[in-house]
Amino acid sequence: MKEENCIFCKIANGEIPSKTLHEDETFRVILDVGPATRGHALILPKNHFANLCELPEETAADAMKLARRMAALMTEKLSCDGLNLVQNNGETAGQTVFHFHMHLIPRYGDDGQKIGWTPGQPTQEELEEIRKTITA
Length: 136
Ligand code: 5GP
Ligand code: ZN
What we know:
alpha+beta; 5 strands; binds guanosine-5'-monophosphate
């Protein structure tokens, strides 16, 4: 399940070299070439799935287990102060490579990066309307 013109398929399967931190049967973990901070890494499945909704449940579960292990390892080795786990789905959400991946972004007190949003102020009625929309 690879896609012909997908750069992450090629990287995950070793056709294009990368700075690899971990490799197993299902995943490769690489350093991002445009890092937000020192040690910014990407978890790539070797098979092609465009986004989270396309990911099989078992692969999703394994990806999160690997994220947990990598986060612990990176926190120890890089002595970072925190770590963001980021995963973008769709262009509007900031996805630029349409092969599922998770970002592991080590955070340092003085790194100057911002990962966040401006909080809204919905009423209880608005929240209830959204809850109904999603769960109906
Ligand atoms: P997205 O915006 O899709 O969530 O994240 C794509 C990420 O992939 C970006 O952080 C970008 O720097 C990284 N990236 C894009 N092309 C390459 C590449 O060829 N090699 C590596 N290691 N990272 C890449
Ligand atoms: Zn791919």
